[in-house]
Design goal:
Blueprint: H1 2-18, H2 22-25, H3 27-36, H4 53-57, H5 61-64, H6 66-69, H7 94-101, H8 111-114, H9 128-136, H10 141-149, H11 155-161, H12 164-168, E1 172-182, E2 192-193, H13 196-200, E3 219-220, H14 222-231, E4 237-247, H15 262-265, E5 275-280, E6 286-291, H16 315-327, H17 331-352
Parallel strand pairs: 1-5, 3-6
Antiparallel strand pairs: 1-2, 1-4, 5-6
Bound molecules: heme C (7 copies).
One heme C is lined by residues 29, 32-33, 36, 49, 51, 56, 61, 64, 66, 68-70, 86-87, 112, 117-118.
């Protein structure tokens, strides 16, 4: 069942990428979008009823079609003041609804608080930042940082490199997803995820993957990664890695083993070798390209801005990893020590800028 679901999704995802316009697939959508795709069309009360056409077209829900979720749109709509029906997510997503209903978060947020039904995406088509923004809507980032820093050393780095759902759901199969970040040349501002428009300026044509995938074979080799790091990194661009689950669940909880540093730091060199680079697309989503195996282990040239202690091939860093394992939760003593040991690397990175 699960496998079937995933196959179906992959099929739909591929279908989405190849469908030139989805309006053709569901003609009804076009009728509705004639009004709802325009920003100037508002409700009588003055509220927005705008649906972003580019974002909607990029969703699987556009294949489902407006009227599958809003049936019984009256012939007098919108003039007659009747409100079209709204589907309940659970009608089509029963397994997710059942799982979520059992979680500790069920009474805290509804499906629509975390998902705009007109802009849904699979996690593999989103950036880690965008996924975390769902939580930040209600969970104040500074407060979360403060409460987690009580037990998590380098809490800021951790929170920036992990999805909240990594520690708060039973999501599985972790990979490293890197996104391209940029800042104005010469500035000391924080790096921000680079936009499609920004990257499009660096390439000719539509295929912005070419910023790193120089030969355009839809894969990133270690050589291409090195070339990117050599030219752009440290000047105004870098690759920021995040640990992301391939399979997302809605079993919200506080997981006991996430107190255990070894859950991530001692999984051995075999784990998390799979990595991707996420390139933004025009609709606000991301398309990812697989990176040749070994990038995460090749910290000096492959992913200089991301190294998972305890999982790399580098001996000094593995010793630190081993220390983390040994230290277990007695981190306060070790905290400053780790910083000292790892600061040098980060400083060298900055220095190149
Ligand atoms: C002629 C323009 C027009 C067309 C065509 C149109 N709509 Fe609307 N729609 C509106 C306006 C204006 C409103 C706001 C109504 C109000 O003032 O409450 C609205 C409101 C809605 C609402 C929200 C009602 C609520 O609960 O607040 C939904 C859902 C909706 N439309 C769905 C659709 C669907 C689905 C279609 C296509 C089958 C469609 N509309 C076609 C103009 C249009
Ligand atoms: C997968 C189901 C689904 C599809 C497909 C869908 N909608 Fe919706 N729509 C909803 C739900 C659920 C809500 C209520 C959202 C909420 O309560 O936050 C909604 C809300 C709306 C609203 C009210 C304003 C808003 O943004 O909340 C409008 C207008 C609307 N939809 C129009 C459309 C149109 C037009 C289409 C097709 C282009 C469409 N919807 C496709 C599920 C869907
Ligand atoms: C009429 C059926 C239907 C309804 C109602 C519906 N969905 Fe979906 N949804 C689908 C289908 C089909 C897919 C693609 C296959 C899958 O993931 O099961 C999908 C996919 C998704 C995805 C993954 C994005 C993707 O591209 O696959 C999310 C997130 C999602 N839906 C959320 C919601 C939420 C939230 C609601 C309630 C507002 C909702 N859906 C209501 C049919 C529906
Ligand atoms: C607290 C936030 C939150 C709530 C509430 C929530 N989701 Fe999600 N959901 C997420 C996140 C985060 C993801 C992963 C990113 C994405 O695809 O949007 C996700 C992913 C999904 C997916 C795609 C899963 C996949 O990878 O195949 C579906 C379908 C989905 N949600 C449906 C629902 C439905 C239905 C509900 C309500 C019963 C719901 N979600 C409630 C946060 C939430
Ligand atoms: C619509 C608002 C809303 C959104 C969005 C939301 N939450 Fe929550 N969440 C709450 C509220 C309210 C509470 C209870 C008060 C608190 O602990 O802050 C809560 C509590 C929690 C708790 C602690 C539960 C406990 O019993 O101690 C966790 C963990 C959590 N949320 C994780 C997440 C994650 C991860 C996301 C993003 C995927 C998310 N939340 C998105 C509203 C939200
Ligand atoms: C490295 C794993 C990890 C990450 C990443 C993480 N959490 Fe937590 N979180 C925990 C653990 C463990 C607890 C239990 C701490 C306690 O009971 O004091 C917790 C507690 C919480 C609580 C309840 C206590 C509080 O601080 O209010 C909330 C809410 C929460 N997390 C939300 C989030 C959100 C939102 C994010 C993403 C920004 C996030 N967490 C990222 C592991 C993590
Ligand atoms: C859910 C996974 C996860 C857990 C649990 C976790 N870490 Fe991390 N840790 C990471 C990631 C990801 C990074 C960031 C790697 C990067 O960006 O270079 C990191 C970075 C670090 C660093 C910083 C290395 C540097 O580059 O400066 C230290 C120190 C560290 N972790 C110690 C710990 C300790 C001690 C614990 C247990 C209290 C812990 N970690 C728990 C995933 C985790």
């Amino acid at each position: 069942m699960h496998a079937y679901n995933r196959m179906m999704r992959m099929f739909l995802a591929v279908f989405m990428l190849s469908a030139a316009t989805v309006y053709a697939a569901v003609p009804e959508n076009g009728k509705c979008m004639g009004c709802h795709g325009r920003k100037d069309v508002k409700s009588i009360a003055g509220n927005s009823v705008y649906i972003d056409p580019e974002k909607f077209t990029a969703t699987t829900h556009s294949i489902v079609g407006c009227t599958s979720c809003h049936d019984r749109v009256s012939s007098g709509h919108p003039g007659d003041g009747s409100a079209p029906a709204r589907a309940v997510c659970g009608d089509c997503h029963a397994p997710v609804s059942v799982e979520y209903a059992k979680s500790l978060h069920a009474s805290k947020a509804r499906c629509n608080d975390c998902h705009n039904p007109h802009e849904v995406r699979l996690p593999m088509f989103m950036s880690g930042d965008d996924i975390n923004k769902k939580c930040a809507k209600c969970h104040d980032a500074r407060k979360i940082l403060k409460s987690h820093a009580k037990w998590l050393p380098q809490a800021e780095l951790h929170i920036d490199s992990l999805l909240c759902i990594t520690c708060h759901t039973g999501s599985q199969d972790y990979v490293i997803t890197m996104s391209i970040e940029s800042r104005l040349p010469g500035s000391k501002d924080a790096f921000k995820t680079a936009t499609y428009e920004e990257l499009a300026k660096l390439t000719s044509g539509d295929n912005i993957g070419r910023v790193i995938d120089l030969n355009g074979d839809n894969k990133v080799s270690l050589e291409e990664l090195r070339a990117f790091n050599h030219h752009l990194r440290g000047k105004n661009m870098r690759l920021w890695g995040m640990m992301t689950p391939e399979v997302v669940t809605h079993s919200y909880q506080i997981l006991e083993n996430r107190w255990d540093c070894t859950f991530c730091h001692a999984s051995g060199p075999k784990a998390m070798q799979k990595s991707f680079i996420a390139f933004p697309d025009k609709s606000g989503g991301y398309k990812r390209l697989a990176v040749e195996k070994g990038a995460i282990l090749d910290i000096l040239y492959g992913t200089p801005d991301f190294y998972m202690l305890g999982t790399t091939r580098s001996t000094p860093l593995n010793i630190i990893g081993a220390l983390i394992v040994a230290a277990g939760l007695s981190f306060p003593v070790f905290h400053g020590f780790f910083r000292l040991l790892t600061r040098k690397n980060r400083k060298e990175d900055d220095h190149e800028a």
